[in-house]
Amino acid sequence: KEGARGGVGGGNDFQWCFSQVKGAIDEDVAEADIISTVEFNYSGELLATGDKGGRVVIFQREQESKNRPHSRGEYNVYSTFQSHEPEFDYLKSLEIEEKINKIRWLPQQNAAHFLLSTNDKTIKLWKISERDKRAEGYNLKDEDGRLRDPFRITSLRVPVLMPMDLMVEASPRRIFANAHTYHINSISVNSDHETYLSADDLRINLWHLEITDRSFNIVDIKPANMEELTEVITAAECHPHQCNVFVYSSSKGTIRLCDMRAAALCDRHTKFFEEPEDPSSRSFFSEIISSISDVKFSHSGRYMMTRDYLSVKVWDLNMENRPVETYQVHEYLRSKLCSLYENDCIFDKFECCWNGSDGAIMTGSYNNFFRMFDRNSRRDITLEASRESSKPRAMLKPRKVCTGGKRKKDEISVDSLDFNKKILHTAWHPKENVIAVAATNNLYIFQDKIN
Amino acid sequence: MSDGTQGNKTVENASAEEQREMQDKVISPEKAEEAKLKARYPHLGTKPGGSDFLRKRLQKGQKYFDSGDYNMAKAKMKNKQLPLAAAEKTEITGDHIPTPQDLPQRKTSLVTSKLAG
């Protein structure tokens, strides 16, 4: 059921409007330009993106200006840098992609900003700092840096700090390497602000942000005999408040919650979340579409959300035997699973996110559609990230997929959906109704109209 | 959970089991898709979505090369044409010899992202 009006979110009727789009318009998309992760920082002032080419671009929100009231809160480029480069592991004959799998911000502790970015094998801590002053009046060198002849110096002066054009510098402060045999899918900063976890297909490691030559393995699901492998880790996250708790999801649709106080090696879970399956409905596709591609705790820490191929589920941490809410993202794809398997789309990993108040959730779909669900009103809406609806402050029109029978005007039939236009990565501002949606090589920013 | 909504329920005087099987085929779109897939790929693994696709996931990025084959082929290369890499996407394994020209060129993306443009 579609919401009657354009709005979903947090109990009020919000109206999503186009704000900005970043990236090239050309049809030919270079693989390196494909956005692979999007993340707001804790205040929402900064928005980071990572791409397949190993680059990070950070946008900063403009302060409100009386001169241009409508450009309130636009995001403009703040810093960009090459985070990772392609590598070849000669020992294992393994090609390592530079694609940024995840970016996670650290809570801000001083004037500089810190983020963790990771590719398949290596995690890096980046410091992004501003420089708006420069020292002038050195004794031993000229303004352009040339050394002065010390014998020509007849008097001493004290260098003074002069303002300069703002320069934003990114520098790698820590490199956490060589701890993952398999491909890293998640990183998550702990609420203690000292440690973080990194998860690959079979193992999860705990790091201290200051220490790069050591990490603790806290989960290891590698079987003694790889022939017996039935399940891999697909995502992991630290609890937002309890620094001893984390969860990880699997390719079999289960989630395990672990408590690091219980044992050094958390192979035995504290809680095990799984929805019972009707055995008669089991098919070849069941396990594949139950694989969880993303897990996110609510801001409150009371719930967690999981995304599998066709749905989003909200779980109460106090109830392990089934989710408390299930939202269908694109149920009409169930009758297309055969071709989605053949073109590999069935393996697409969609992410999901909460809004700041945990009242609404968002996730992507195909054809550049993305879906929002209001947990309170149970209303849902489908919106599209497209250049056509990209006029400034234009309100987004709800979209509808026609599943059979007569197609109404403005509806799109399932067979006309473009499966190359996938929205895998979305992010919601931690405090306001501003969302960032990555559509292949373009980043769309939408805001609600009310403000 | 699959909640088939389309399709007519056939009501016949069949045994309950047969009826349910028919209902499954008619009502469950997922099972219909499975049948379609099995028709196209009859040898598809018995384990649904099991170790095969997991192992493929774990081996992402793995490259293969045999220096012995390569050197022997280079020696023969003077007279004969070698079978070349079929397409970029296929893995380069035993049955043909990769040459430096075959390997996809990895360029580092030192160009600034267009998002920042």
UniProtKB/TrEMBL annotation, chain A:
Q: What keywords does the record list, in alphabetical order?
A: Repeat, WD repeat
- The protein's superkingdom reads Eukaryota
SUPFAM superfamilies associated with the record: WD40 repeat-like
Gene3D superfamilies for the chain = YVTN repeat-like/Quinoprotein amine dehydrogenase (2.130.10.10)
Q: Name one GO molecular function term.
A: protein phosphatase regulator activity
**One annotated Gene Ontology cellular component of this protein:** protein phosphatase type 2A complex
Instruction: Spell out the subunit comment.
Output: PP2A consists of a common heterodimeric core enzyme, composed of a 36 kDa catalytic subunit (subunit C) and a 65 kDa constant regulatory subunit (PR65 or subunit A), that associates with a variety of regulatory subunits.
Q: Which family does it belong to?
A: Belongs to the phosphatase 2A regulatory subunit B family.
Name of the protein in question: Serine/threonine-protein phosphatase 2A 55 kDa regulatory subunit B
Automatic annotation (TrEMBL), chain B:
**GO annotation terms (biological process):** cell division
Q: Where is the composition biased (Basic and acidic residues)?
A: 17-37
From start to end residue, where is composition biased (Polar residues)?
A: 1-13, 106-117
The name this protein carries in UniProt is: cAMP-regulated phosphoprotein 19-like
The primary site where this protein sits is cytoplasm
Q: Look up and give the organism this protein is from.
A: Scleropages formosus (Asian bonytongue)
Family the entry assigns: Belongs to the endosulfine family.
Its biological purpose is as follows: Protein phosphatase inhibitor that specifically inhibits protein phosphatase 2A (PP2A) during mitosis.
State a single Gene Ontology molecular function: protein phosphatase inhibitor activity
Mention any Pfam family matching this sequence: Endosulfine
